[in-house]
Amino acid sequence: MKKNLILFGHTIAFFLFAISAFSQTNNVKNFGAPFQADHTITYEELTLKMQGVDSLPAQVSGTVKAVCQKKGCWMTLTAEGKPDMRVTFKDYAFFMPKDLSGHQVIVDGYAYIETTPVNILKHYAEDAGKTKEEIDAIKEPLRELSFEAAGVKIVK
Questions:
Q1: Which end of the chain is more exposed for a tag (fewer CB within 10 A), N or C?
Q2: Residue 108 and residue 143: Cα distance in Å, rounded?
C-alpha cells in the first residue's frame, strides 16, 4: 500500500511537471471557439483573396494595432501599406485583453466587405480613446474589409 502511494505521488508530481513545462513552452492563448490553425493566411494574402468577393471564410494571421479600451470587444489588424482591418467577435461572446497591441494573432471566422456608418465609426473612435477633434473629423461612412472571429489565438 505504501509503495502504491509513493508511486502515485511520483506520478502526480511528473504530471504536474509536464503540465507546467507545456504551459511554459506553449505561449498560445485561445479565446472563443477552439480551432486548429492549419489553413492560416496572412492579412496581406487575405486582401488579395478578397478582390472580387464580398465574404470569405478564413484563418488570418496578423499584428494587432488597436483594441477597444472599454471592453476589448474589437481589435484592428494592421499590415504595411494596407488599411487596418477591424475584427469583431461572433455573438459578442468573448473579448480581447486591452493590452494586445503589437501582438501576433490568428483569427478564425469570416472576412467581409462592409460600409461602416459614421455613427459607428465615431463609436469605434471613442472606444479607442481618440480625441474629440479626431471623432468630430469623421464625416463619411467607410467601405472596409472587416472580420468576424469565432475564435482567436494569441501567438506572441
A1: N
A2: 22
Q: Output b/e per residue, 91-111; b: 16+ Cβ within 10 A.
A: eeebbbeeebeebebbbbbeb
CA geometry: angle 16, 21, 25, nearest 5 deg: 150
For the stretch 34-83, pLDDT in tens is 999 999 999 999 999 999 999 999 999 999 999 999 999 999 999 888 89
CATH topology of domain 30-154: OB fold (Dihydrolipoamide Acetyltransferase, E2P) (2.40.50)
Beta carbons within 10 angstroms of residue 5's beta carbon: 9
Whole-number Å distance between alpha carbons of 46 and 117: 23
Nearest C-alpha neighbor of 115 from the set 78, 79, 149, 143: 143
Q: Is the pLDDT of residue 20 over 90?
A: no
Using left for φ > 0, alpha for ψ between -120 and 50, and beta otherwise, residue 73 falls in: alpha
pLDDT at 108: 98
Each domain of the chain, given as residue ranges in start order, spans 30-154
